[in-house]
């Protein structure tokens, strides 16, 4: 994509990545892709805000040169040191010999350890401003959104917030970069939620503090480092992030996430009966086979819904490993205070329910229903499972 004007003198020069399979080496983006959004601010002095990962250097420089010769660059603003934002910094450092790198104090040390760069660096403090001529850049520290060195950059003349990882999302841009030009907003919001829960959710407290800190700014455009640029309704993505961050301390909305695993189909048979009971109540229900679904896609449902049903067999006296891995990731992301139920089969000894309780104990989940059966479920068991699902759903619906 050629460079795109965001505001007069401000250009998007981002890169779409449809080749990377795993974001951060963990989260699948094979189907969605991701963008690395960089921005050029051109005035008497010229500033680049954020870069791209090193595997995209060639395309990135091509985008850059669509607007400006790198040798004419005065500043390289590094809002965040994660390599998907800074991977091309060594190349730019050589191509722009007169450019000063702008970053926080913590980021300065990371420049040395990540890239071996120790000079031509200017550390900026919280609220500090650099003049570009008619335009200027103002910097705000937002630690742990989502690394400790992170800042955001604000251009007050055009009222553009370059928000780095905050307010971003998965999804390669499909020919358009702005929210008002995007035809499938449901896709983007779904991928933005998945990005939030995968990447940022553990730091929801700092997210809320950053939103409060930036609340007094007059913002026409939210320009994150991944995903859509918001110019029609910049408050929409901010409000969504605020809502998602609040789930860290709230029990979630009425709904059920049903996570199951089945070795020989017996637990799956019970799962269908439980799901039938939940469906009778009419609350949102999402079902995930943990052995075939990456936790990246399960976590958003767990994050936003207040009810969890786990269906899993006992495997060698322990919880079926794919289900255990999902619960362990939920614990890592601090998905707290959910109501939960368990059902599952065992051959000669139980143990799965014990592991469910142990993994989620730090999360203060309330386990209100348990139904275990040996071997295969009987017709009576299936009816009891349906009743359990309906009973649990009615409890969850009360919030």
Structural overview:
With 399 residues, the protein is α/β, with parallel strands linked by helices. It folds into two domains: 4-246, Metallo-beta-lactamase, Chain A, CATH 3.60.15.10; 256-397, Rossmann fold (3-Layer(aba) Sandwich), CATH 3.40.50. The chain contains twelve helices and 23 strands. The chain has helices at 57-65, 83-86, 89-95, 105-115, 185-200, 204-214, 234-246, 266-281, 295-304, 321-332, 352-360, 379-397, and strands at residues 4-7, 10-12, 15-17, 22-23, 27-28, 34-36, 39-42, 46-49, 75-77, 100-103, 121-123, 129-131, 136-141, 151-155, 160-164, 221-224, 253-260, 285-289, 305-311, 314-315, 318-319, 339-346, 366-374. The strands form six sheets. It has a seven-stranded mixed β-sheet with strand order 1-2-7-8-9-10-11. Strands 12-13-14-15-16 form a five-stranded mixed β-sheet, with helices on one face. The protein has a five-stranded parallel β-sheet with strand order 18-17-19-22-23, with helices on both faces. α6 packs antiparallel against α7 and α10 packs parallel to α11. The longest helix has 19 residues, at 379-397. It starts with a strand and ends with a helix. The model has no long low-confidence stretch (mean pLDDT 96).
Secondary structure elements and pairings:
Elements lengths: L3 E4 L2 E3 L2 E3 L4 E2 L3 E2 L5 E3 L2 E4 L3 E4 L7 H9 L9 E3 L5 H4 L2 H7 L4 E4 L1 H11 L5 E3 L5 E3 L4 E6 L9 E5 L4 E5 L20 H16 L3 H11 L6 E4 L9 H13 L6 E8 L5 H16 L3 E5 L5 H10 E7 L2 E2 L2 E2 L1 H12 L6 E8 L5 H9 L5 E9 L4 H19 L2
Parallel strand pairs: 8-9, 9-10, 10-11, 15-16, 17-18, 17-19, 19-22, 22-23
Antiparallel strand pairs: 1-2, 2-7, 3-6, 4-5, 7-8, 12-13, 13-14, 14-15, 20-21
């Amino acid at each position: 994509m050629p460079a795109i004007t965001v505001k007069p003198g401000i250009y998007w020069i981002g890169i779409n990545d449809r080749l990377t399979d795993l974001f951060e080496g963990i989260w699948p983006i094979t189907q969605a892709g991701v963008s690395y959004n960089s921005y050029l601010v051109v005035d008497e002095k010229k500033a680049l805000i954020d870069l791209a990962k090193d595997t995209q250097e060639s395309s990135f420089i091509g985008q850059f040169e669509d607007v400006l010769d790198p040798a004419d660059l005065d500043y390289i603003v590094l809002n965040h040191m994660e390599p998907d934002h800074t991977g091309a910094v060594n190349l730019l450092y050589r191509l722009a010999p007169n450019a000063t790198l702008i970053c926080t104090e913590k980021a300065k040390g990371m420049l040395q350890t990540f890239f071996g760069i120790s000079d031509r660096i200017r550390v900026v403090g919280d609220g500090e401003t650099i003049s570009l001529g008619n335009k200027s850049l103002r910097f705000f520290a937002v630690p742990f959104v989502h690394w400790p060195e992170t800042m955001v950059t604000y251009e007050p003349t055009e009222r553009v917030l370059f928000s780095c990882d905050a307010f971003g999302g998965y999804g390669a841009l499909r020919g358009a970069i702005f929210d008002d030009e995007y035809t499938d907003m449901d896709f983007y919001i779904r991928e933005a939620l998945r990005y939030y829960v995968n990447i940022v959710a553990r730091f929801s407290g700092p997210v809320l503090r950053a939103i409060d800190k930036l609340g007094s700014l007059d913002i026409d455009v939210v320009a994150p480092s991944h995903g859509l640029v918001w110019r029609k309704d910049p408050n929409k993505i901010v409000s969504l992030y605020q809502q998602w961050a609040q789930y860290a301390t709230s029990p979630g909305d009425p709904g059920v996430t049903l996570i199951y695993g089945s070795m020989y189909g017996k637990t799956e048979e019970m799962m269908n009966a439980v799901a039938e009971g939940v469906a009778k109540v009419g609350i949102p229900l999402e079902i995930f086979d943990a052995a075939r679904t990456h936790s990246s896609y399960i976590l958003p449902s767990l994050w936003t819904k207040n009810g969890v049903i786990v269906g899993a067999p006992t495997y060698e006296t322990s919880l079926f490993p794919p289900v255990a891995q999902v619960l362990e990731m939920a614990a890592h992301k601090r998905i707290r205070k959910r109501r939960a139920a368990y059902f599952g089969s065992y051959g000669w000894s139980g143990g799965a329910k014990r592991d469910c309780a142990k993994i989620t104990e730090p999360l203060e989940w309330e386990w209100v229903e348990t139904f275990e059966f040996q071997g295969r479920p009987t017709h009576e068991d299936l009816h009891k499972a349906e009743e359990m699902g309906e009973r649990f759903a009615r409890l969850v619906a009360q919030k």
